[in-house]
Amino acid sequence: MYVHYAGSAVTVYGQIVGRNGLGTSHVILLDEVPPGSRVLDVGCAEGYLARELRAHGCTVVGLEFDEAAADVARDVCEDVIVGDVESEEVRRQVRGPFQRVLFGDVLEHLRDPGAVLRWARTVLGPDGRAVISLPNIANWSARREVVRGRFPYADHGLFDRTHLRFFTRSSARAFVEAAGFVIERERFASGPLPLEARFPWLGHTRPVFVRSAPELFALQVVLTCRPSTSA
């Protein structure tokens, strides 16, 4: 069981986890990490994933742009490297191999996410996997806003103003495969359904809707991938 994050919240994402606990995509990411793994958490923020991973016998190296968040994450990480993952100088500080490299809603914030994902291949061990969570801009709630002629930038969520890339289920799969990975598992994080705020009982039907039409009802696509031998 995964608990609410109780550490110091520095980033907006840490504040959200502090208020609401780990999200569905976080739980899926954690579920894809075998106990006892050595993990690289790219964009580790305050270490809310690392805290849970450590409780399951994992050792975690964090990579975080925000120095204040990195200071908090050091309490639960083996090491935290501070800097931009798109910098080759920063990447040279990362010492693999890792059994898992986590990108939890990180790649959409980067100028060249494909280059970063290709680099991740070089720090994975022989049986290592990359676990990647990407937001689904084709979710029904985003489609509704666009149909209304709006693109409401926000501090977080599908319209996070710091997103530089936008993905759907199909483009997420194509992006990962173009970076030299083979998708082993595809899972989906769900969000509220239409009219769920008015009829809360609809929340119990989320899994059915997400399985039947993930392109429409998934908030995030979570892909567990191994490096392609042909890449």
Shape: globular
Strand element count: 7
Number of helices: 10
Mean pLDDT, all residues: 92
Query: What Rg, in angstroms, do the CA atoms define?
Result: 17 Å
Largest sheet: 7 strands, mixed
Q: Quick one: CATH superfamily?
A: Vaccinia Virus protein VP39
Architecture (CATH level 2) name:
3-Layer(aba) Sandwich
Going by helix content, strand content and strand pairing, the class is: alpha/beta
| Strand line-up in the sheet with most strands | 3-2-1-4-5-7-6
First-residue to last-residue Cα separation:
37 Å
Report the sheet-strand fraction. Answer: 15-25%
What's the level 1 CATH class?
Alpha Beta
CATH topology grouping: Rossmann fold
Low-confidence stretches: none
Share of residues in helices: 25-40%
Order of SSEs: HHEHEHEHEHEHHEHHE
Q: What is the domain total for the residues? A: 1
Brief description of this entry?
This protein has one domain: Vaccinia Virus protein VP39 (Rossmann fold), CATH 3.40.50.
List the keywords:
single chain; 231 residues; alpha/beta; Rossmann fold; seven-stranded mixed β-sheet; 32% helix; 23% strand
Textual characterization of the structure:
The protein is α/β, with parallel strands linked by helices and 231 residues long. It has a single domain, classed as Vaccinia Virus protein VP39 (Rossmann fold, 3-Layer(aba) Sandwich), CATH 3.40.50.150. Helices cover 32% and strands 23% of the residues. It has ten helices and seven strands. It has a seven-stranded mixed β-sheet with strand order 3-2-1-4-5-7-6, with helices on both faces. The chain is globular and about 50 Å long. The termini are far apart. The mean pLDDT is 92.
